[in-house]
Amino acid sequence: MFFDKSSAVKALLLQSKYCKLVLLDKFNDVKEGDIFGSPNEDDFKDNAQGILQDGGIGNEGSHHLVRPGGVSQNVYLTSSVTDLSKFIGMEVEVWGETFAGEQAGWLMDVGRVKVLDTTIAAPSTDSATAK
Length: 131
Description:
The protein is α+β, with helices and mostly antiparallel strands. It has a single domain, classed as CATH 2.40.50. Helices cover about 20% and strands about 30% of the residues. The chain has one helix at about 5-25; strands spanning about 35, 45-55, 65, 75-80, 90-100, 105-115. The protein has a five-stranded mixed β-barrel with strand order 2-3-4-6-5. β5 (about 90-100) and β6 form a beta hairpin. The longest helix has 23 residues, at about 5-25. The radius of gyration is 20 Å and the shape is globular.
């Protein structure tokens, strides 16, 4: 029996690429009501709710929650428990521990995330459009 090494390698690469795509698709399948991180909200004393956006302030936080009331109400977030980037643009409730920030008014290390709405628009932070 003749074994074509080149064809076998191509088939393996194609199968590997397909499996990665399937895994990435499953990884990004975030639904309302999903909980990530700790299953127990009682593990944390602090919680906040808002629209998760990319970026911290200065060197503090990798993401932030946009909440009604403008920039002063933002909660700056970091997490070693879950990848916050998969919740960008979604309304979430987070639980964690608050730390003193030098620039952030509220800096939280997130240990639990609950997805509340996957299709919500961030509240306007433009005070000129506020009525």
